[in-house]
Amino acid sequence: MTPPISLLGLELIVDDLDRAVALFVDLLGFELHQRGESGVVAGETAIVTDGRIALTLLHPTTQGEARILPDRAPRLSQMIFGTERAALDDVAGPMIEAGLALTPTRDGFYLKPEAISGVLGFETAVVMTTDG
Questions:
Q1: pLDDT in tens, 50-65
Q2: How far apart are CA 43 and CA 62, in angstroms?
Q3: What's the gap between Cα 39 and its chain centre?
Q4: In 43, 87, 92, 128, which residue has its Cα 20 to 30 A from 106's Cα atom?
Q5: What's the whole-model pTM score?
Q6: What SS3 state is found at 86?
Q7: Nearest to 83, CA basis, from 120, 53, 52, 108
C-alpha cells in the first residue's frame, strides 16, 4: 500500500513576476505569502497560496551573487510532494525499483528533471519531503 502523499507546492519559472503575482493574487484570489530575493538562484521569488498549496514564482536573472540558472525559460520547474517521515522509504522503494536515481536531501529526496522527462515529456524536478 502506498503511503499518503500530498501535493505541497509547485515552482514556476516566470518571465514577468509582477504579472504572475497579479494573476494569482488579484485575479485568482491567492494570498501573497512572501516576495523577495531568491535564496537559491539569482533572481526574485514570490510565494502565493490558496491555503492548501503554495506556488513559488521564480523570476531568475542573468546576474547576481547567487547561482545563475542556465535555463531561464518559463516552465514548471518543480513539483513538491510531502509525506510522513516514517513513510519516505516506502515512497522511495518503488521509485528505486523502477530504475529512478534519487538524490537525497536533508528532509527527503528528489528526482532530477532528466529522470522525469521520459515520464511527463518535459523536464521538471520532483521533490519528496516530510510534511510534518
A1: 999 999 999 999 888 8
A2: 8
A3: 14
A4: 43
A5: 0.87
A6: helix
A7: 108
Residue 118 CA: distances (Å) to CA of 78, 102, 105, 112, 113: 15, 15, 23, 11, 9
Q: CA distances (Å), 126 to each of 8, 19, 22, 57, in order?
A: 11, 26, 26, 16
Tell the burial category of 75 from Cβ atoms under 10 Å away from its Cβ (0-12, 13-18, 19+): middle
Q: 115 CB contacts (<8 Å, ≥6 apart)?
A: 100, 101, 126
pLDDT tens digit sequence for 19-53: 999 999 999 999 999 999 998 899 999 999 999 99
On the 0-12 / 13-18 / 19+ scale of CB atoms within 10 A, 61 is: middle
Strand-pair partners of 79: 10, 126
